[in-house]
Specification:
Blueprint lengths: L1 E6 L4 E10 L2 E11 L5 H19 L3 E5 L7 H20 L4 E4 L1 H8 L7 H11 L8 H26 L1
Parallel strand pairs: 1-4, 4-5
Antiparallel strand pairs: 1-2, 2-3
Helix pairs in contact: 1-2, 3-5, 4-5
């Protein structure tokens, strides 16, 4: 099963694709979609177009997006939510069911603790995906989201076999 993870961001939207075969995970690709500056609607359209192209290229079977956290800057949180909405739309338009995970749940699944820093996430992603070189912190986060979702899907499948 091929899983794409998205770390939403207006300026930099991380993405990562992994393949899951049983308990084994393999890195496929990762990167960062960038929106540049200027008109918000044009920036969102640019992110949408890049995500559509990535989905067409990598043909994932499943998708996951990190949930938005609320910070002190209300306007920044709103813009982040809009970028997240673009990611959800691009994935839904491709016919993918989308898993959504809180940042702490992703960190706990990949690092083992819910309050890991960016360096710990990058390190654990590299350990779990040998040969992987994330193209920045946003890409490492997106790969962590994909790993988290792959584990979740594997657990759900195992529970389905038991029931």
């Amino acid at each position: 099963m091929r899983v794409i993870g998205i770390d939403p961001g207006l300026r930099n939207m991380g993405w990562g694709v992994v393949e899951s075969e049983g308990a084994r995970l393999r890195h496929v690709a990762n990167g960062v979609c960038q929106s540049g500056t200027g008109d918000l609607s044009a920036r969102l359209l640019g992110l949408f177009s890049q995500l559509e192209a990535l989905v067409a290229e990598h043909r994932p079977d499943a998708a996951a997006v990190e949930q938005t956290f609320v910070n002190r800057d209300g306007a920044g949180t709103l813009k982040l939510g809009q970028a997240r909405g673009v990611a959800l739309l691009a994935l839904a338009r491709a016919g993918l069911a989308v898993g959504e995970y809180a940042p702490n749940a992703v960190k706990k699944a990949v690092v083992g603790v819910g309050h890991a820093d960016k360096g710990q996430i990058d390190h654990m992603v590299r350990l779990q995906l040998p040969g992987c070189a994330p193209k920045g912190a946003d890409a490492a986060d997106a790969l962590a989201i994909a790993i988290c979702h792959a584990h979740h899907l594997q657990s759900a499948a195992a529970l389905g076999r038991i029931a």
